[in-house]
Amino acid sequence: MNTSATSATASAPPCVLTVAGSDSGGGAGIQADLKTMLALGVHGMSVITAVTAQNSLGVQGAWELPVEAVRAQYRSVVDDIGVRAVKTGMLASAALVETVAELLADTDAPAVVDPVGVSKHGDSLLAASALDSVRGALLPRATVVTPNLDEVAQLTGVRVEAEADLRTAADALLAFGPRWVLVKGGHLAGDAVDLLTDGTSEHWLRAPRHDNRHTHGTGCTLASAVAARLALGDPVPEAVTAAKRYVTGAIAAGFALGAGIGPVDHGWELRRGTE
Predict the structure, then answer these.
(1) For strand 15-23 and strand 85-88, is the pairing parallel, antiparallel, or unpaired?
(2) What is the reported pTM?
(3) 274 part of the active site
């Protein structure tokens, strides 16, 4: 008997699936998700929904995959390997949003929905016609939804100008049916403050703001970290707290790449351990 193979199989880490677009520059999207999952000790798997031509300066092109290709990838992975948590990112169109929502409804695992609307550079990654599908089909399937303030405005019309507005934004999002909402207040002045709530309990998460412009991939990284921690067995508040700590360190360690905005450092903890 090959005992080493048996041992390796027995100790396989929890599996987490990302359903998102590819970032050719490696800082966000599928690439950021898989790096985050590796850093946090889970096995990352992927369903690619779109391919982008993207670098530190912006998105030069985007091509969504057919619904049949997205569904086939998802079923191939989930039906054979199984999954402990799912994270969604760029879904591009109403057809893809509705397909992914249908797949999530048939999956017994927590779902972290990052309702990606625009890139770090302001490039649109979601058709305006898909917003109703996000509200009506995808958000009700979410264990946690993780919008930034621009995405909050897109989905609800609520403009967050101050920390006190975060609660109003969260309530507007909870009306669409997710179990938990994490409203990310990183675009506000002062400390980076986020509000996590299920409508009953509130958790205010604060972190110092780092003077580093290289923050590409922040949203993807945070949502993937939440999914990883859920797969490892954390309750939602603990998963989000751990994810916030991880992404804060990744932002602090973000590095220049190309001529524009560089990525966060997904391996910051691993690198620190070797110094």
Answers:
(1) parallel
(2) 0.94
(3) no
